[in-house]
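for the writeup, i need someone to sanity check this before i put it in the appendix. the sequnce is what the collaborator sent (i think, or maybe the updated version? ugh). structure was predicted straight from it, no edits. if anything looks off just tell me and ill rerun, i have time this weekend
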Amino acid sequence: MNSSDQPLLSLRTALILLLGVLTGTGAGLLTVAAGGVLAAGFLAGGAAFAGAVIFFHTIIG
């Protein structure tokens, strides 16, 4: 067991991943709501998540 009091993720990492999840969820829901099939929603959400994580990693310093 490790007894250090350091968090598992830094605040910056948690924020970037949270914003990525929110972006991916929004893109997936909008894709399905626009008439796309569920698989297309998952693909759009995954692509939006990846792009958002890269984007927020770049701008949040």
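The radius of gyration is 15 Å. The mean pLDDT is 94.
thx in advance!!
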